[in-house]
Design a protein that fits this description.
The complex is a heterodimer.
Chain A lengths: L16 E7 L3 E7 L6 H4 L9 H16 L3 E11 L8 E9 L4 E8 L2 E12 L1
Antiparallel strand pairs in A: 1-2, 2-4, 3-6, 4-5, 5-6
Chain B lengths: L7 E2 L18 E6 L2 E8 L16 H15 L8 E12 L7 E13 L2 E10 L4 E12 L8
Antiparallel strand pairs in B: 1-2, 2-3, 3-5, 4-7, 5-6, 6-7
Classes of the chains: A alpha+beta, B mainly beta.
Chain lengths: 126, 150
């Protein structure tokens, strides 16, 4: 164990294996592998591991923060839909679009080309 | 949150929720009515879902309200293997960034049902009644005979 063993405060995206990241002015595309040993799977749920929805949301917030160049928090989750669960070993493609004038972001998470989650949210500087 | 007067506390929560550490957040059910319940949670300094500044991920409040809603559903279900999955979040507003540790209560109220879809409204407050977050959660409740296809 390293010196992060007590509390891991890395961005959640950094706990996932980065398999690609492209950043443009107002949009981001990234591919992340969900490790089988991600600690959250032990409790959500034992025997049926799947990524909690709140972490899918936070992945998108962190993606928007990368685009904004600063940490962001949530003002409102305007509309979020979870279409299929994300499981250990899944390759997740996430696209985030950022509107800096309105502080609004939208995100789509897919696996195997099919939608896993679609989000629309309003963010605030942290 | 001493547990005094709580309806459900400690490990008894696990009878109503499939969640376990590090995701199990609801600690006690303080009050229950026909249309909702109030739960409590104490998120310690070592809570794993915090950013570099020590603030709770804002989306945690959705999960907390979802767990309270799941307890409400489970206590009314006659199917022991029935499982509710969060499928939607609508207009969920975060009123403040919350640093750890945080002692919170969450009040959820059943709003409506359409077939196997159940809609709840949830509100999270810090000790002292300070509002943290509120909004709508949508669940699909999967009867046990419909085994998951994932």
């Amino acid at each position: 164990m390293d010196d992060r063993s007590a509390i891991d405060k890395r961005p959640f995206l950094d706990r996932l294996e980065n398999q690609g990241l492209s950043l443009e002015d107002r949009s981001l595309k990234t591919r992340r592998l969900l490790p089988f040993d991600l600690p959250v799977f032990a409790g959500h749920f034992p025997g049926r591991p799947l990524l909690p929805g709140f972490l899918e949301v936070w992945m998108a917030v962190e993606g928007a923060s990368l685009l904004a160049g600063r940490p962001l928090g949530v003002q409102s989750l305007d509309k979020v839909r979870f279409h299929q669960p994300l499981l250990p070993g899944d390759l997740v493609d996430m696209t985030v679009r950022w509107d800096p004038d309105r502080f609004q972001a939208s995100a789509v998470l897919t696996k195997d080309g099919a939608k896993a989650a679609v989000l629309r949210m309003t963010l605030v500087p942290r | 949150m001493s547990g005094k007067g709580a309806l459900i506390l400690g490990s008894d929560i696990e009878r109503y929720l499939p969640h376990r550490e590090p995701v199990l957040m609801v600690q006690e059910i303080l009050e229950e009515t026909d249309d909702g319940l109030t739960a409590s949670a104490l998120l310690g300094k070592d809570f794993p879902f915090q950013d570099a500044q020590g603030f709770v991920y804002d989306s945690v409040w959705c999960e907390l309200a979802a767990q309270a809603s799941a307890v409400f559903l489970k206590r009314r279900s006659e199917d022991p293997d029935e499982m509710g999955l969060l499928t939607g979040i609508n207009d969920f507003r975060i009123h403040r960034a919350t640093a750890l540790p945080a002692e919170v209560s969450v009040r959820i109220a059943f709003s409506r049902r359409i077939g196997q879809v159940f809609v709840f409204w949830g509100e999270v407050r810090l000790a002292g009644g300070i509002p943290v977050a509120e909004g709508e959660l949508v669940f699909f409740v999967q009867p046990s005979e419909e085994s998951p296809k994932d």
